[in-house]
Amino acid sequence: MSEKCILLIDDEETIQEVVQIGIEIETDWKVYIASSGSEGITTAQTEQPDAILLDVMMPDMDGISTLAKLKSNPETKSIPVILLTAKTQVADKNEFQNLGVIDVITKPFNSVTLASKIAKILHWEL
């Protein structure tokens, strides 16, 4: 089976490190990092990741705008997107799922169990 790759789009360096280390310790997945929505869109087009972890609250282009651009692009529209957010209201989660995300992971999250949570959401073997 080929190595999976995940693209993390998040502007916070701490989150980038926690996600990358947590996933790479637990799996053989490759983790690409993008620090902004526009960088994430470009990386998604060039790297064609198996899934995208997308922060909702970012400066310049927020996660919802980034998601809209990813979903409107034929090269990236079929890549599953999991939102990372501190917004935990039921209405927010329902709105996010109506936008076409596969699931929502709430911040803060446990970096030790993050990979298994992603694998479960995407039906991947670990």
TrEMBL record:
Q: Does the keyword Phosphoprotein apply?
A: yes
| Family matches, as InterPro entries | Bact_response_regulator, CheY-like_superfamily, Sig_transdc_resp-reg_receiver
For the modification 4-aspartylphosphate, which residues carry it?
D55
Where would I find the Response regulatory domain in this sequence?
Answer: 5-122
* Short name of one Pfam family: Response_reg
Question: Which processes are annotated in GO (biological process)?
Answer: phosphorelay signal transduction system
Tell me which UniProt keywords the record has, alphabetically: Phosphoprotein
Name the CDD domains on file. Answer: REC_RR468-like
Instruction: Indicate whether Phosphoprotein appears among the record's keywords.
Output: yes
The name on file for this protein is Two-component system response regulator
Species: Mastigocoleus testarum BC008
